[in-house]
Specification:
Blueprint: E1 2-14, E2 23-25, E3 28-31, E4 35-36, H1 49-54, E5 64-68, H2 69-77, E6 91-94, E7 106-109, E8 113-120, H3 126-130, H4 134-137, E9 139-141, E10 147-149, E11 153-159, E12 161-163, E13 168-173
Parallel strand pairs: 5-6
Antiparallel strand pairs: 1-2, 1-6, 1-13, 3-4, 3-12, 5-11, 7-8, 7-13, 8-11, 9-10
Length: 184
């Protein structure tokens, strides 16, 4: 595995209920194999309501949701007012192109936490309920007409630990060949 680059945590958040937005916190605790302590999406098996309805025994590949702060900047330029935690992320990053990471990239957060990127967040209709037109703003198309989902990435917790705003993020890429992220 090779080193990638260093970035940092801008904010951390959680919600004990299944609300679209979360609440910013001074810190969060990641629990190995489970997710964010106190968050509604904590668990070994899938916790997102739509996925539970389809198959509640699926592994939870969405234990931690990350969004890059640069997306909030982009949305502001388009006239949207989206603050940290508004789109339900647990960790808001800056200086890291989350969407370019391959599946299996490991993010070392703070002093001890390690998470592994599992895939892209597939935004649901709740995003338009939050702000009309936001769904279209977080979707794009590349030069070949392929859909680009910009609403963040999902991860699982490999090693627990506390995460705070200002913490550095060290990225370790998996061995090549790299697998591109797909919706999970």
């Amino acid at each position: 595995m090779g080193e990638f680059r260093v970035s940092n945590v801008q904010s951390v958040s959680l919600s004990s209920g299944h609300a679209f937005s979360k609440e910013c916190q001074p810190d969060i605790t990641l629990l190995e194999g489970l997710g964010v302590e106190g968050d509604a999406h904590l668990g070994v098996t899938v916790q997102h309501r739509s996925r539970v309805a389809k198959d509640p025994t699926q592994p939870n590949l969405r234990q931690v949701h990350l969004i890059h702060a640069e997306l909030l900047d982009e949305l502001a330029e388009k006239g949207f007012h989206v603050a940290p935690a508004d789109m339900g992320e647990n960790i808001l990053t800056r200086g890291l192109d989350l969407l370019a990471l391959p599946r299996g990239a490991r993010l070392h957060l703070g002093e001890s936490a390690i998470i592994e990127v599992t895939g892209l967040r597939n935004p649901c209709k709740q995003i338009n309920d939050f702000q009309k037109g936001l769904m279209q703003a977080v979707l794009d198309y590349d030069a070949d007409g392929r859909l680009i989902r910009k609403a963040g990435v999902m991860a699982i917790v490999l090693k627990g630990g506390r995460v705070r705003p200002g913490d550095k993020i060290n990225v370790v890429l998996p061995d090549a060949p790299h697998q591109p992220l797909e919706a999970v």
